[in-house]
Amino acid sequence: MSHNEKFNTTKNNTTKLKKGYIKLYKEDKKSFYNFLKYDQFLPIYLAHYIFIIILLIINSNNNPIISFYDSIILHINQTGTHKIFHKGGFSEPELSGTTNILPDEVIINDINKPEISNIYYFNETNNKIELKWNSFSKTKISALFYECSNITFIDFSNFDPSKITDMTYLFTKCKSLTSINFDNFKTNSVERIYCMFRNCSSLISLNLTSFNTSNVIYMGYMFEGCSLLSSLDLSSFQTEKVQSIRYMFNDCTSLTSLNLSNFNTPSLSNSSGTFNNCKNLTFLDISNLNTKNVNNIGFMFYNCSSLKSLNISNFDLSKIINMEYMFSGCSNLAYIDMKNVKIKENIKLENIFYNSLNNPIIFMDDENSFIKIIELFNCTIKENHTCENGCLLSNFENNCYETCSYYFYFNENINQYQCTKEKKCPDIYNKLDLNKNECVKSCSEINENRYEYNNVCYKECPKDFITSENYCIPNCTREKPFLSLETLECISKCRIDDY
Known about the structure:
It is built from 3 helices and 29 strands. The protein is mostly beta strands. The strands form 9 sheets. Strands 19-18-21-20-23-22-25-24 form an 8-stranded mixed beta sheet, with no helix packed on it. The protein has a 6-stranded mixed beta sheet with strand order 8-7-10-5-11-12, with no helix packed on it. Strands 15-16-17 form a 3-stranded parallel beta sheet, with no helix packed on it. The radius of gyration is 34 Å and the shape is elongated.
């Protein structure tokens, strides 16, 4: 019998059904609506044993409005005792609360389970669980599935979350959860989604395109510990009201690419640890991240060891008080664009490049700002005017740095590397190795950049030059056929001094 045929039944052939309820499928809604509008007080019957309450309200046009059950379907494919929901109400910083969000019905393998408690446990094998509410009126579902460690799949397609404001800790520690159906999941009222997927260590994909985050304030720790997520599409996220993205992607160790170019965050105040330990992240676009009100970006890129370049030229750090360990552990980060960034005084810069790539190329407008940002507290000068931890000694002030603002050279008198005061090599070490920005005595000392021209060491001679021993010699043309040994330049005719 088709679903439409069910609606043509009369009282004569429904004697086995109980008065008051009927089972309604999604595809039945249209025909059921037509069936009802001719008899406003038609008795409604119960079909089988799964309840869906029908609420009939006659509006001014005499059209019935039907409100169906809110339901969530769960799949569990393991044996043993399982927790399938929690009373919720968690709040930061203490996990406590009293919000009662118990379902009206719990149906396991199509069998109604009447015994419902605040934390519902069961002991079955290969289960499908359906949680049903007559009409979900709560505004919080925080921690609903907290530590439900054996749920593998959750279907929210028949659940209306449009009035919910708090989804914090919703799936925290659901360590077996591999996927979630968020079709039709409208989140236009939600304000808090921090820790929502925290430590969902088996999640392999998430489709969040239905999410409306225009009213969200807190996103901190949202995906922390989602160690199997290799990609995330957050292009639908609206972040104008977001105040915190603290440790949002912490320990997302499988993420390789993340495009957050749509993140415009004028209300943001805390972005510390946002990408902490995203060790396989090779691409990151945060070109529109607004940091004008941010005060803490410490540990923001900590141990992003696969990042090779980073553009944060849009960052406004005028209110920043903490940048410690910001790039620490970024062992492959060779290029940082900070050309529009200004660093204020009295800012915490401890270990900002600790265990990162030596001598990263940093582009900034103000070279004094450059010196400020790389000045490290672990690079302290000793009593004998030398530096520890491989740091470099400034030759124009008694400070130690991890990276020089210009060039560096090995001072044999003190057996210590030193920084140059200007963009110029000192007299004794007057040859420049461009590869390392290091001043040396002779290009022949360098294995790779061993050819010299105009006091610069090259790996290969420039175009239109030829090699002669350890030198690059211009390849003179017919117009300028003579080589000046004084300047090593081609000239059109020799002077007396050149003979």
